[in-house]
Amino acid sequence: MRAVIKVGTSTLTYGNGNLNIRGIENLCKVLSDLKNSGIEIILVSSGAIGMGVGKLGLKERPTDIPTKQAAAAVGQCELMYVYDKLFSEYNHTVAQILMTGDDFSHTDRYENFRNTLDRLLTLDVLPVINENDTIATNEIKVGDNDTLSAMTAVGASADLLILLSDIDGLFSSDPKTDKNATLIGEVKCVDDSIKALAGGRGSELGTGGMITKIHAAELCTEKGIDMVIANGADASILYDIFDGKRVGTRFLGKGKQ
User: Fold this and answer.
1) Per-residue pLDDT for 207 more than 60?
2) Sheet holding 160-165: strands in order across?
3) Predicted TM-score of the model (pTM)
4) Alpha-carbon span 145 to 75, nearest angstrom
């Protein structure tokens, strides 16, 4: 099995941008164990700007592009250092791939991306993918890592995409404001009624929200790839997902409904 797992900024850092050490250590341990079991893992990791905010001692996420890109440059270095250190403890090698939206639309670069990704997996390397926020502009950026992870899953011909975030899944209404909101365990088709359930953006340090996750589900399911939204507070939830247990919200790939 080949799986793309995306972790959001809220899973990797605290609200002030500092690294959630316990969370990321557990994530790397679980991913290493799953990889040991024979699952090909591709990690799409947010957190560069968030970690840069913490590293630079900024009080909040910057709003101007130069400071965002500076924070990304500092944070991406820190992020990969942490991943390299933690995965090495379990004898796994990581590789960094930074993408922009333009790379997916450019035929040669997209093919090079797919070939490199496939070769890394053949070499038993764990690819860590993020948007190249240091150079990305509105014209060439993907914009959020939910969409990036879906595009990666399609490019990698993955069997499953898992989005780990600070939410349990898709609800019938906003659980923050409606105490009667219920978790939707399975979605067979991403139609207008499902899209209508999406709210606004996510955490203050992140860029996503349910809207981007629904869009990611559209991209994946159209290509026959299942997608799961689950709470990443405890990475051990991944064991349940791969064991086929009902966790979070599963969007069924086309042809699997």
Assistant:
1) no
2) 94-99, 126-131, 40-45, 2-7, 160-165, 226-231, 249-251, 186-187
3) 0.89
4) 16
